[in-house]
Amino acid sequence: MQQLLNGLFIGSIYALFAVGFALVFGILDRLNLAHPAVFAASAFIGIELVTVGGLPFWAALPAVAVVGALLGLIVERVAFRPLKGRADAHFAGLISSIAVAGMLIALLQWRYGAETRRFPADTFPATRFDVLGAQVTLLQVVIVAVCVTLVVGLTWLVARSRLGRGMRAVAENPTAARVLGVDVDRVTATTFAISAALGAVAGALFAMNVNSAQLGMGSAIELKGLAVIVVGGMGSLPGALVGGLLLGVAEVFAVQYLGSAWRDLIAFALLFGILLLRPQGLFGGRRARQV
Amino acid sequence: MFTESTVTFIALGAIFAFSFYAVLNAGQLSLGQAGFASVAAYTSVLLAPDPDVVGDLPALLAALVIGTTAGTVAAVVLGLPTMHLRGVFLAIATLGFAEAVRIFLLNAEWTGGAQGMTVPKVVTPAIAWAVLAVVAYWFWRSAPTRYGRALEAIREDELAAGAMGIDVGRHRLGAFATAGAVAGLYGVLWAYTVRLVGPADFGFTAAIDGLVTAMVGGTTVFIGPVVGSTFLTMIPEIQRALGVEAGWIRPFVAGLLLLVVILFLPGGLAGRIPRRLRVPELDGADGEGGAVGARERAPRGDVVARLTGLSKDYGGVHAVRDVDLEIHSGELLGLIGPNGAGKTTLVNMISGLVAPSSGEARVLGVAAGRTPVHRVAAAGVSRTFQHSKLFGRLSALENVLVGGHLVTRPTLVRRLLWLPSARRDERAALTHAARCLDRVGMLDAASTRANALSYGDQRRLEIARALAADPSLLILDEPAAGMNQVEAGELARLIRSLADDGLAVLLIEHNVGLVRQVCDRVVVLDFGEIIASGAPSAVAADPRVVEAYLGTEA
What we know:
heterodimer, A: mainly alpha, two-stranded antiparallel sheet, 11 helices, B: alpha/beta, ABC transporter involved in vitamin B12 uptake, BtuC, Rossmann fold, 3 domains
């Protein structure tokens, strides 16, 4: 039981991170490899907001989301918009987002150095609960609550709101969407902003959970995020949620039964199995692009 | 500034970048090279003899052979199950492989874990550059061969490459294996340079570095990786010379460079070097025989394609329904019908791109749609596409050279060995291509990039490319689209002359005037079914045809 809960906690962060990947891929058919860099940057920025800015944790989280959204806008502007209309945009976007990611990490290194950063010890009350015989901290409950709320909220947004309708129109056919009066550029930019904001919150929560932020934390979770969206079906939001939770639980059980060394192999085993057996993923029923 | 280690690392970086170049040049993004390199490095360190016993050079040579083999094997083992993946999916799968290898090496007992294994330092700058020279030689000599052009064609348009008779799967796997071999060389050299083989050197960052080097240098000219590596290796050196020591500057500049290159210089730094391909003179005479083997063609009047009960459904939509049709050699058969009548679907089935839902298309002895596309092409089917599918970044002449894939001989091995016969064969292939270009009246545009041609010229270039395969059945999908009256008239004469040469020509066209003027026989398709067939004048008078085109009187 304890293991299952631990898996769900870490899995919900994976899910929140991967949803950002999935959103951009689902709507714009682009893989944004700068997403992990935003994830890492927000962890550092969150720590700075708390230690230097003196913000309480609950206020730092929305602030981090705003910073993340801004970073998302920059990524879109610099790495993706200039490629619009190019025949190799798909491929070039991958490379240009890798480039922006590299620059972002370099800037982090400049500002924060290469050492590990931590939240101050008293950032969050260390309250514990007993749930069905398992130990749960308040932080873990908050993490799950925030992640699930955000993912569900996003799913609702895409399915129901006016913005979401625009997103789905762009996903279906950008040219037709433009003809029908959808401001494609704005929808695209908004999509990037939302995606990055979610990644940013995931980054801050992750840093809080393991109580450390490192320059390499982005690339460490990047591959897991990719595994999650491949498993869930590229571009499927519910798929990313389920995939994230699945990966978290699988990892925790791998640690228990195979040893901690092999935990990180689980993601790749899942990824490989799915790519070879069911390339459209668990939830990617349609071959066509979907939100 | 050029210390011994800088010089060595430029060569190493270039070799690693070549392993990315090998696949990027064929249009695949693989990020698994660091995995191949680590497999090769560990294998060779374990298996190669000790330099203290057999001497430095023999030990290194043995290690290089072992490493290259291990890298190639790793690439083929990964490549076989993943070759059907495209674009992003291939990138993710290969990245996952590299990461899995790294974790495995980190945790296995015999690898020394995170510490790795110590290795004697054997590599000197001269050795590193000698290996680089060998690798660069391979890519330099292989580019202008049938094999090299096939890879570029796959990069530009995989579907069209298959329709030109190129076995896409085999070529892609070949490129992948090359990447593995070159990455293997890099892994071994790296280990014997830094005196250590550890998992940290072959992580995600290493893969990105290799990709950046290859992209910055350029992925279409063989010198690209060397340019890229020199550039990126020198950044910290220049930094040091300027007295700026901050560690973040190199990754920042590398990222910035990559961004600038991808946004403004899609061909990389070396992409600025113009590619030259001399257009051969056509002096009336047929040249000295040459190696371009004209293929055997069915005698006039023979059936080249027989369709029986051919149908294709997409979900509930019957795109093509129960079509029976014979096409004879020497015949110019017109296929017309309103938009959405199923013409293109029918043609896609005949050329083997789409598998029929039921019925059979027996084309030149093969069952089209049940055999790989390149086999159908090899049987003698060649085609143009409704939406032009040229190899955009190749010149007009190169496009036609790829079209000649099936009638020219492989020259890769012989070019590597500088055999004079390779030169002769290449020249014959060029002459053949130039002649095909000349036939459609486009020899003047031979060195123009295909995507810079006008729409009408692109259509004609597609015909030249299809002709270069010396087909028995030529399928033209709306060749006159976008042409004016004069151009269409010239095209009509050209098409007629092809049929008079004994080819079977299947012409899909919206320009009914053109069809009536040149075709021997016309088939009319409506809602996926043949509604009329016969001599052009008879078909034009058929009330059902008039109805299909103009609708019934209300």
